[in-house]
Structure formats: C-alpha cells, structure tokens
Amino acid sequence: MTKLKWGMIGGGDGSQIGPAHRLGSGLDGLFEFSAGALDHRADEGRRFGRQLGLDKDRAYGDWQEMLAGESARDDKIDLVTVATPNSTHFEITKAFLEGGFHVLCEKPMTMTVDEGEEIVRVAQATGQLCAVNYGYTGYSLVRHMKAMIARGDLGAIRVVNAEFAHGHHADAADADNPRVRWRYDPAQAGVSAQFADCGIHAMHMASFVTGQQVTKLAADTVSCIASRTLEDDAMVNFRMDGGAVGRLWTSSIAIGRQHGLTIQVFGEKGGLRWAQEQPNQLYWMPLNERLQIIERGESDLSPEADRTTRVTIGHAEGMPLAFANIYKDLAEAIQAHKEGRAVDPAADLYPRAEDGLRSMAAVAAVAESGASDAVWVDARPPMYR
Description:
Blueprint: E1 4-10, H1 18-26, E2 31-37, H2 42-51, H3 63-71, E3 79-83, H4 89-98, E4 102-105, H5 113-126, E5 130-132, H6 140-150, E6 157-165, H7 178-181, H8 186-189, H9 194-210, E7 214-222, E8 233-240, E9 245-251, E10 261-267, E11 270-275, E12 281-286, E13 292-295, H10 303-307, H11 319-339, H12 353-370, E14 377-378
Parallel strand pairs: 1-2, 1-3, 3-4, 4-5, 6-9
Antiparallel strand pairs: 6-10, 7-8, 7-14, 8-9, 10-11, 11-12, 12-13
C-alpha cells in the first residue's frame, strides 16, 4: 500500500507533544512525514523541518503558507495534525477542513462551544475527517474495556469514576513560570484551566468506554493557589444519557500524583479498573467472583484489543504507541474514504469533532456550575439538545 502523506503544524523543537505525534504517525509505516509548519518563528520552523528530513519546499514558515503550498500540489498531504497553542486550533482546523484536508486536532478542539459547533458543521459539509487527539483512548486495554462493556459483561452501568490528578503545578513559586502561568490565564486558556487541560480527558474516557454521553453536571472548582484566576482543582458530578452516574476529580496540585489518569466502571454484574500509569493491566471483578487481572497481549481478547497491541505480553507499551493506534485508525478511515468502502469496525474508534464539541460544552458547564456554588447545569452542546 502506498503510504499516506502526513503534515504537522506546531510540535517544533522542544515541544512536549510533537515527538509523540511523529513517533505515533510513523510507527506502522502507514504515513510519510511530508510537510510541516513546526514553529511560530518562520526561520526556526523551516530549519527544524529540514532537520527532520522535510524537503526544502515543504518545510513551511507558517500554517497559511503550508495550506497554500499543499493545496497547489498534486501530491498534497492526506492528513494534517494541529498541535499549536489552544487559541489557534479553531482557525487552523477550519481552514484545512475547508481546503479539503483531513485533520487531527490536539485537544481542546476549540476555545468555545460556538467554535466547536462550527467545526462539526464544516466537517459534515466538506466530508473531511476531523479527529481530536484524546490519545489515551488508543491504549489496547482501554479498547478492550469498551468492548467488554458493549457486549454486556458488566450489565447495566451504574457508576463511572474518573480521575486525572497530578501535582506538577503545586508550587506557588511557579506563578511566574511561563510554561505554567498561561494555563491559568483566561486570555490564553479560556474559561477553565485544569478541567479544560486534564479533566476533559477523564470525562471523554468515561463516555468512550461506556458509550454514554454526559447530559448534565455539577462542579465544585477552586484555585488553591490564590494568585490563579482559573481553577487548579475540580470535583465534578455528572449524569449520562444511558443512566450511569459519574464522579470526576481533576487536580494539578495533588503532590505525589504523577500522571493520574484512571477510570473505573461499576455495573450490575461486575466492575473494571484501568490506570494509565499501569496500562498493561485491566482489573476485572465479576459479581460474587474473584478479582481477575487481564493482561495486554494475552489470548482471547477482543478484536479491538488485538488490533492495537504492539509488543508481546509482559513488555511495556506507552503513550506514543497509544497515539500510533489513533493514527492507525485514521489511516484505515482515510483509505476507506478514498475507496468508498466501510471502515473496519475494530478501527472505527478515533475521537471525532463531535467528541471535541461535547468536551467544550462540558468545559463551559463546569465553569458555569463552579461559579454558581455547584448548581446542576446542562452539559450538552446546544445543537444536541
């Protein structure tokens, strides 16, 4: 199969997320890194692009130049990843969708619900794929968790408990550190800090594994470091459209916690627990039976898990491999789009623009509820009410 052509905006030299995308996109040999506008400094972006092996005429100075340049080529890129600061996601994603490109956008997809609804409408109108990088959904055992719930192993889902708590912003002396400060600045981060940064990963994970959507929520938010305008800790109660009750805690001041993404689902016939820091094990407790540990890579797992396991049982798999599974899904979807055929159901799991929109509606709802003493508010985007 001819490799699909891939381009990236942002993710330049020193970027936290850029290497994970470049590793993930190239792992299966399905994509060729063909174009990039990798830095807001044009000369630095071109230099780094050429260092990574891009042709001189495809190492662009900015995303506008890249959009014009790729649009004029017969061999233009098939997919572009947007890994720029949050406030630029909407403009870039919309422009590339309208230009006829498939897009994978880093989260949050937009800064507002209105922008999110616009992206959904543009993706629908253009017929282009628009994915959002909730990359942790690429883990093999997360997908097996989803498959177990979908086939009824847990029965009706009663409670979902999700966490994404770390302690890396707990030092008040970091208030002026530019890598930290922007996250709590409404002008750069929007209406939410910690929930918009990490909490939406946990909430999306709750919807991903259960197949249920959040309908309403009540949030208690706090800025534990007084100089911060936006929250650094939040507790969110939520209800889902399939009847499940949800609890979510997210924090950036939880000293001693490192990454902290965990998901637990409790049904009428059993419970499941998975933690991102120990991704090779899924804990399964059937009702009135003994605890079982499901290992990634063992036999007789679901097609969704088998398709996304990379190395033999007992060896670690990590975030770049989870990202690779998102790219593997997208490669299958793009090929199916080209060939006019149905997508492999085991691969049709990448997060969509609709997921990005629901996350932005949840961010807005958390901000509204947190400012109103945790009143219950509608968490659905207006277009889905």
